Amino acid sequence: MVQVGPLEEGELSQWVTQTDGDANEASLPSIYQTAPERVPAMHNSLPFILDDLKTETSQKQLSTAQNVMKSVCQPFLPPLDKATHVEFLLSPLDEGLSGGFVGLDASRPWLLYWCTNALSLLGENVGVYNDRAITSLKPLQHPSGGFGGGNGQAPHVAAAYASILTLAITSYHASKGLPDNERLAVYANSFAWIDRQKLLQWLRKIKLPNGGFKVNEGGEEDVRAGYCALVVLALLGYNQEELQGDPSLGELPLLDGVAEYFKSCQTWEGGIGAKPNAEAHGGYAFCVLAALCLLGDPEEALSKNLDLDRLVSWLSARQYAPEGGFSGRTNKLVDGCYSTWVGGCWSLVEAAVNAIESGKTAVKTNIGDLWSRKALIRYILTCCQGPHGGLRDKPGIRPDYYHSNYVLLGLSAAQHYYYYDRSSIESLALTSSPFRHGYRWRSSKNVPKPTGNDGTGGGWLEGLVSDESDRVGAQHPLFNIPLGAESQLQSWWEWFNDVSDEEAVLTET
């Protein structure tokens, strides 16, 4: 039995575990960790209700459930095979990609982000790749602003997003433990060359009058574009004055109508579509929730702009039994990447609902989990680990770099409790930032159990990690980069804006 020590004020990132010393533990196979509990019934049988109408969709769902059930119902959970996954993820960085990847020429920033972030989650120091990341990404900056997916390609907001995330990750690792002047030099080398003014002008070109964004000039409109644009603006330190625009040039405030546009994308099901009147989808749900939380306190931003009751209903329906993982849409199969796109939504929803609950009474209450963390962890460990490294969609599918990153991000969401900290102390520059709310997120290894309105109940959810070696790193629930990387980058921009001269920056560092 695992006993979790109480979460003390100011000690939110640590937990204490103790074991009863069960004599049977010594006889367990060394390649397995002990399961934190008996296999729940949900993993041992097919759903109680099956569709009598046999369609291609229903038959695929039944076949997938039967296949997955063979893995998730095992009595002992396999450990997270970090060493093999690290080897899989280092291969493209150290040895290069095969010719078969030529079709992903427009996804160069994505390949860098997926691999470096997944390696960071597994505890690897990816700072050694910082200089190479800069060398690879510099040629992708377009003369008219923004980043393309490959050399000489037109700018695309998703390419800009992945580029900035990669630089934030590698710079964070490369600057750890360095004196201030050397740390600033790392960030100057990584970010001072980005033409922020042209990038901002380009983002104005893809902003739509209805508050949405296109992915590029002449491209499609969707909430993913809006989310990527806001993340880029937040991580590159744009302030309110820069976003207001110049009225004499006909420029409108860049954030005008953005929240209202996101609000219009909630569907009749309760989920979020790519744009108004589109089908609800887990990836777009995450984009909208994270973007709204960049613009405000999650309690206010989500409850004001979305019907949370319907959203919770739709999100709950995305977690399947017996699989334990998530699907992205109604009547679709479980897929490991939705461990992030749906699993990542829950941290944001819980932060909003906990705040709403605590505002009703003088007693601080907590709703506890709205989803099954343990079921997702079981699905990831038993079904998503490739036998030769890397993580995947489901059994029978080959692992890849995309799924490796987003499955591990989902595992982080299940293993950590992410919450919004209103009491965080901020610099003057950050206080005036339109994205200041994105810098108030914290994590804890303790996951609280629900409390009643009278304050009874509570305690800590046990058994999420039987061995600390299976825990992955804490990630920022909005940016999807290591938690702490965002604040280091923000402090660099504050220093950079004080100097306000690129030549002086490079000279001083």
TrEMBL record:
Domain Prenyltransferase alpha-alpha toroid: 80-448
Keyword Flavoprotein found: no
Full protein name: Protein farnesyltransferase subunit beta
GO MF annotation list: protein farnesyltransferase activity; zinc ion binding
Co-factor binding comment: Binds 1 zinc ion per subunit.
Role summary: Catalyzes the transfer of a farnesyl moiety from farnesyl diphosphate to a cysteine at the fourth position from the C-terminus of several proteins. The beta subunit is responsible for peptide-binding.
Subunit relationships: Heterodimer of an alpha and a beta subunit.
